[in-house]
Hints:
By secondary structure, the protein is α/β, with parallel strands linked by helices. The protein contains 9 helices and 8 strands. The protein has helices at 6-11, 16-25, 37-54, 71-78, 90-103, 114-120, 140-150, 166-179, 196-204, and strands spanning 61-65, 82-87, 107-111, 125-131, 151-162, 208-219, 224-228, 235-242.
Amino acid sequence: MSDLSNSNQSSANVDAEELSKFAELAAYWWDRDGEFKSLHDINPLRVDYIENQANGIFGKQIIDIGCGGGILSEALATKGANVTGIDMVEASLEVANLHRLESGLHVQYHLSTAEQWAEQHACEYDIVCCLEMLEHVPHPESIVAAAAKLVKPGGMVIFSTLNRNPKSWLMAIAAAEYLFNMVPKGTHDHAKFIKPSELLNMIETTQLQVSDMTGLHFNPIKQQYFLSNMNVDVNYFVVCTSS
């Protein structure tokens, strides 16, 4: 695991409150009925979507930006991908490494920002994943630029985040955090949610080209998640290819 100096951390594109919040929750990453239950529930959908968009991931080099405790990273490694996970919450990476030892999967985890990693590893990855992360940093446009730098020419970048509108506040905060306790209270700040038009504007400043956009939806009656492009009102994915 690489180390960052205090000066680098202070100037990095991170939110100290967000780091503290996820550090306090780190022990629960692999509790499938705990605080990260919703991530475990949507993970098969995320992995299937990535596989379908990439026409398979076996043997491909993938980086998981904001990997947390390794839920997505391990699932991708299970499919035969060569996965690197980076995050700025050391406690989460410790959990990820411990779970990696238990699972026997080969995943590399590093303490680093996307920007710092991109300086050293430009054009190294077939697939760059940045899921449920952009809404937790002060400058998401900087993460988008780093992702574009990390991907190989002809490779793929996948972002997922939350739209900013009254419906997303109702569904992702009022309902998910307070009514149904699907995620811990205070997980999200609605002001940091990102409209699709805003994310597309960030992408347009890079060499990336958008190839797909779809929404992640929840059926409260069936208690099931599903993907559909009928709307992107709340959670949504954007897939890009690199020229």
